[in-house]
## 1
Amino acid sequence: MIKNKLKDSIKTERTDNSNLNEFTRQLQEQIFNQLKKQYSDIVLDYWQHPRNYKSLKNPDGYAKEKGSCGDSMEMFIRMKKDIIVECSFLTDGCGTTIACGSTATEMAKGKSFTEALALISAQEIIKHLQGLPEADTHCAYLAAETLRRALADYLHQKKAPWKKHYRRP
Ligand code: FES
């Protein structure tokens, strides 16, 4: 008797779980379809598969900036003879911020210090992402500004290399 009750309850639980899984799947699909109406495929791709999303140990350039919405972004740069050989970021921001950070770091890699400073702007990030809704353009400004500050930090460190060991990270 108890054994049967237990079997029934496991069965009910399994049915509940599969209903919940199906509900979750449908909800995710609905959300994704809504997002597809607002964002390009490239934004959604970077959003789901962030590029260069990591910190770098002892970076040659580093910056942490806060956006107008309160979200922040950190950027890390590794240089070799004034060429950006590695560029990565971290953020506590939304998916669009992740897409913008991914774009900025992808664009920066392989560029010289001067090229990166001159060519990577919020407008270029937005263009690369095939547009962003007006409400999200500040995410691109945050990524561009963080990169600019990390480059400025690199310049600063070059003049006073010993300072690198006394700053975060
Ligand atoms: Fe805050 Fe994108 S930076 S929403």
## 2
Amino acid sequence: TRILIFPLLDDGSRYVAEQIATTIRSRQANGNYCVLGLATGATPKKIYAHLIAMHRNEGLSFRNVVTFNLDEYFPMRPEHQQSYARFMRDNLFNHIDIDFKNVHMPNGTIDAIHVHDFCQRYEQQIVSWGGIDLQILGIGRTGHIGFNEPGSPSDSETRLVSLDPITRKDAVPGFGCLEAVPTHALTMGIKTIMQAKRIILMAWGVQKAPIVKRTLDCEITEMVPASFLRQHDACSIVLDRLAAMQVL
Ligand code: F6R
């Protein structure tokens, strides 16, 4: 695992946005599609802002980009203020030239009895595009990646999961009160994430410092799902100085 420490969130975000742009352009130059695995939440927001700016100012095109998002609350309507579908449209997709038929997100409106089929199809779609070239990740205070909470096995695939109480508590500001925070989510599994050709995990701010330290120092365990990333041979961890405080 390569650990990169930047002074500020904005420096780290710029670096990651440039890595994404380089991946898109090199796939484009060879006439290939570029398959990106995307995250939502506070962590990648600045990255998406940089990508939009590169689209506007440098002609970065997303016409050859295919995306798979990590997760979505369940149940969740795409119009909902807190849905990840809405987050992606507002923070990225509506501002770039991506073809919406190349955008894939776990569907929070699927009937409970069809969830399993949906999740299997999601896995198959990733495979049929040749796998994820670059997967972007944030990390939760529980050590989750996607919504793979502690206890998620290394062979897990896309599935319906329940959210950890800490994760639900962290989501209260968006939803107004704890009762309004969904109890479940659809998420890519640990195995799905680990199959990506390249992974960049990011963490910003002092509130992430303890889990960053545990992720890097603990034994590799499903109790800290992000620790599995240490077994990936092309994974970088990008931190700002505050998130890196306990590992320096
Ligand atoms: C979001 C996701 C989550 C977040 C994590 C950190 O798609 O998969 O794992 O990356 O909960 O959230 P923020 O970035 O809001 O601190």
